[in-house]
Amino acid sequence: MIQKVLIANRGEIAIRIIRACQEMGIATVAVYSTADKEALHVKLADEAVCIGSHLPKDSYLNIENIISSAILTGADAIHPGFGFLSENAKFAEICSQCDIKFIGPTAEMIRMMGDKAKAREMMIAADVPVVPGSEGKIADVVAAKETAKKIGYPVMLKASAGGGGRGMRIVWEESELEKAFLSASSEASNAFGDGSMYLEKYVQNPRHIEFQILGDAYGNIVHLGERDCSLQRRHQKVIEEAPSPFLTQALRESMGEAAINAAKAVNYENAGTIEFIVDAKGNFYFIEMNTRIQVEHPITEMVTGIDLIKQQLNIASGEKLTLTMDSIKLKGHAIECRINAENPHKNFRPCAGTVSQLHLPGGRGVRIETGLYEGYKVPPTYDSMLAKIITYGDTREEALAIMDRALGELVIEGLDTNIYFQYQLLNTKAFKEGSFDTSFIEKNLEEILEQGVGTDAE
Ligand code: ADP
Ligand code: ADP
Ligand code: MG
C-alpha cells in the first residue's frame, strides 16, 4: 500500500492529486519552484519542498532534486501529473531504481509509446488502423519527398518525440516540403531534444476522439468511453466533451475495441489515452497514445462516476482492477472549458499578473479545477492554463446550458483571460449542433471573436 505520495507537478493537476490522496488517507508532499512559493498546491499538501529556481529544468524537470525530496520526506510513490516528467522514461526508471513507485506505466511502456513513429509500427502489427504514412522515421528531405509522393498531398510532418502540438507541419505541395521539414525538425529538437520526424497523410477536417484506458499489473484492461476534443487551436485542445456528439453506438464500439487492442499491444498498466482522428465518413485512425493522466480526464469521471486518480493510486499499489467493461456505465453529458491567461484579440498572447478579484461559479452540475485564489500572482513561467470549468447535465443541451451560465458567473480580474472567447465559442451554431472539426476555430476565428452571445456564427 502507498502511504505517502510526492506530487512532481504544480497548478490544478497537483491539487487534483493532493485531494484524491487526502480522501484516501494518503499523506502528500508538494514540490515547488521559487516562483511557486505562494502556490495553492504548496499550501494544501501535508509537506512541501522547494526544488529549485523558476526555470522548469532547475525544478519541475530536475530529477535529482525531486528524487532527493522523495527520499528525504519518506515518500514511497511519485505522481508525475501531466506535462513535465510524466512521459519521461528515464525518470520512471530512476524512481523504480530508488524503490519509489512511479504512479504510471513502466519506463518500457513509456518508451514504446513515446516514440510516435515506433508506436505507429506497433499499432500496425496489432491491427489497429493508423493514418497512411511513413514506415517509421524519415531520414531526410529526399526521403520525405519520396514518401509524400507515394501517399499523396496534403501530408503532415510530425516529430517522433512530439507533444503539445509542437513539431508539426501541414504540407500542401512538394515545393513547401523542404522548408517545413527543416523548421519542424529544428522546433522538435529545441523542444524535445530530438529532431527526428515521420510523416502522415493529412486527414482533412477530422474529429479528434480519444479513449480513456485503465490497465492493471495483471493484464486486465478496460476503456471508459471517449472524449471528443475536436475544438482545437494550433493542435491544442480548447473545449472537450464526453460522450462525442459525432459517434454512433456502432462506431463507439469498434473504436473502443481498437483502443483496448492498442493498449494490449504494450500490456499497458495504469491510466492512458488512445488518441484517434476520425474522418467525415467515420474512418478512424490511431495517432498516438498518451501514457499519463490527461488535462481533460474530469469529463470522463463525470460521465462514468469513476475517480481516475484514485484508480491510478490503486493500480500503482498493486491492486487488481475491479472495473469490468460490463460494470462501466456512461450516463449524462460533460463539457470542459480550459480557461487560459491569454488575450484572444492579440493572437492569444499569454499573460501573467495578480488575480485582483476572483469569483468561481458553483451550483448543480459545476466542477472547478484550479489553483487560483484572490491575490495569487500568476507567474509568467509556466503553461497558461488557469482553470478548468467542467459542467455535467443529463443531456448535452443541459450540460451546455450549465456551462453557459457558469462562464457568465466566472470572474477573474487582473489579467487577460479567454473566458469570453469560450463563451462565444460555446454559443456558435456549429458547437450547439455538435457539427465541427479540428479546423473549426482556425477557419472561423474572426466570426467567433465578433460574435455577441445569443447570435449565431457558422
Ligand atoms: P495532449 O498532449 O494530447 O494535448 P493534454 O491535453 O492532456 O494532452 O495536455 C498536456 C499538456 O499540458 C502538456 O503537453 C503540456 O504542454 C501542458 N502542461 C504541462 N504541465 C502543465 C501544468 N502543470 N498545467 C497546465 N498544463 C500543463
Ligand atoms: P501531440 O503529441 O502534439 O498531441 P498528436 O499526434 O496527438 O500530437 O496530434 C495533435 C493534433 O493534430 C490532433 O488532435 C489533430 O487535430 C492534429 N493531427 C495530428 N495528426 C493529424 C493527421 N494525420 N491529419 C490531420 N490532423 C492531424
Ligand atoms: Mg495528442
Describe the protein's architecture and organization.
By secondary structure, the chain is an alpha+beta fold. The protein has three domains: 4-103, Rossmann fold (3-Layer(aba) Sandwich); 132-201, Dna Ligase, domain 1 (2-Layer Sandwich), CATH 3.30.1490.20; 207-450, D-amino Acid Aminotransferase, Chain A, domain 1 (2-Layer Sandwich). 34% of the residues lie in helices and 26% in strands. It has 15 helices and 22 strands. It has helices at residues 11-23, 40-44, 63-73, 89-97, 107-114, 116-125, 141-151, 177-192, 249-264, 297-304, 308-316, 396-409, 419-426, 429-433, 440-450; strands at 4-7, 27-33, 47-52, 77-79, 101-102, 155-159, 168-171, 197-201, 207-215, 221-233, 236-242, 270-278, 284-290, 333-340, 342-343, 349-350, 353-354, 357-359, 366-370, 377-378, 385-393, 411-413. The strands form six sheets. The protein has an eight-stranded antiparallel beta sheet with strand order 13-12-9-10-11-14-21-19, sandwiched between helices. Strand 10 and strand 11 (236-242) form a beta hairpin. Helix 4 runs antiparallel to helix 5 (107-114) and helix 12 (396-409) packs antiparallel against helix 13 (419-426). The longest helix is centred in the middle third of the chain and has 16 residues, at 177-192. It starts with a strand and ends in an 8-residue tail after the last helix. The structure holds adenosine-5'-diphosphate (2 copies) and magnesium ion. Magnesium ion binds at residues 275, 288.
